[in-house]
Design the sequence.
């Protein structure tokens, strides 16, 4: 028998693919620092510290049909979402997190060698999924205030460019992209994906414009405002013909029944969830004001549930490490436009107090 090397069968471009940098779950984090998991203050994932609606927990416990496959056409889920978004259900498809929809959209449009515009610094999944799909990333950097550069994007788009991703509010900078910029990009005649994962905290949306634009896609998530990051639930608002293709090529049972139950019950208990969103927005303003008082930090204005700060005196990595030792987890970045920055998710009032105290202590060393 000929000697064989199975590694040779793996796609060549997978060897150089840069892995996505996910956040670690709390039990892994505490193993490293040896404190009880209940004492962890997790402000690194833009998750909702209040969790999901109590009605969701009850509905999940009581649901009787987990032994049956879920509906591949997501009828109940799409109907509930259509009511929430105020568009026809034919425009909506749900995914296992908006992450899954980023992947499915790219699998629908990209052939090897096709390009995607990414406006860095931004959410890493656009680049990662493009490369997994064999696409090419054209990176058009944002300016120093993290606004997108429309003339540069227009100049960068070539005959093989099919999709542009714009997160609005952007992660990690927290700022919105003006509607006028998106409208200008739509004129390019390629697909413009506006990722509104943080919509409930910004209240700015282009969802109602999907029916008039055959190249506009909106992505939303239940991970942040609805406290369901662990169940993986997102959705897209698509032109109808694109929604049909997404339904055709997605994994048939991508929304599991627990996620379906949680989504329907969340929307039935929307007043509760809107209450926690209001608490997070109020706390965001308080956290921002407290961060502004620290002479070693410069927080950037935000429309989301996190705040990016430049460390203007001291060292961002040391600050992150100092907090980590106390069980407070935040993100730290060190890429070109994000040199010496940290990102802090908005938590409960007691989390704000703890993080401010720990930042002061870390600065003093
Ligand atoms: C801009 C943006 N889009 C999408 C996501 C992923 O959301 P989901 O949990 O629905 O996959 C995130 C998560 O951090 C994000 O920041």
Sequence:
């Amino acid at each position: 028998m000929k000697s064989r090397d199975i590694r040779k069968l793996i796609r060549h471009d997978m060897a150089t693919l840069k892995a996505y940098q996910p956040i670690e779950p709390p039990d892994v984090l505490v193993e490293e620092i040896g404190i009880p998991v209940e004492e962890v203050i997790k402000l690194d994932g833009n998750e909702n510290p209040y969790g999901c609606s109590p009605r969701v927990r009850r509905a999940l416990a009581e649901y009787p049909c987990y032994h049956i496959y879920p509906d591949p056409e997501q009828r109940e889920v799409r109907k509930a979402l259509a009511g929430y978004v105020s568009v026809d259900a034919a425009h909506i498809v749900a995914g296992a997190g908006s992450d899954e929809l980023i992947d499915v959209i790219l699998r629908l449009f990209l052939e090897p060698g096709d390009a995607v515009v990414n406006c860095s610094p931004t959410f890493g999944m656009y680049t990662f999924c493009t490369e997994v799909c064999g696409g090419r990333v054209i990176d058009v950097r944002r300016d120093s205030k993290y606004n997108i550069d429309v003339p540069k994007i227009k100049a960068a788009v070539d005959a093989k460019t099919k999709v542009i991703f714009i997160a609005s509010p952007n992660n990690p900078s927290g700022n919105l992209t003006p509607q006028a910029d998106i409208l200008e990009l739509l004129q390019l005649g390629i697909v413009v994906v506006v990722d509104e994962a943080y919509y409930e905290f910004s209240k700015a949306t282009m969802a109602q414009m999907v029916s008039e634009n055959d190249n506009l896609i909106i992505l939303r998530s239940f991970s942040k405002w609805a406290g369901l990051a662990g169940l993986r639930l997102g959705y897209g608002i698509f032109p109808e013909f694109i929604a049909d293709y997404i339904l055709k090529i997605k994994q048939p049972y991508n929304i599991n029944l627990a996620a379906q139950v949680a989504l329907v019950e969340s929307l039935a208990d929307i007043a509760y969830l809107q209450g926690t969103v209001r608490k997070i927005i109020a706390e965001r303003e308080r956290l921002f004001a407290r961060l502004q008082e620290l002479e070693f930090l410069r927080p950037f204005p935000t429309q989301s549930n996190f705040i990016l700060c430049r460390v203007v005196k001291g060292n961002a990595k040391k600050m992150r490490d100092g907090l980590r030792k106390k069980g407070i987890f935040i993100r730290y970045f060190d890429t070109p436009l994000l040199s010496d920055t940290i990102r802090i998710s908005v938590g409960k009032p007691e989390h704000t107090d703890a993080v401010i105290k720990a930042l002061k202590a870390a600065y003093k060393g």
The first helix runs from residue 12 to 16. The two ends are 63 Å apart (CA to CA).
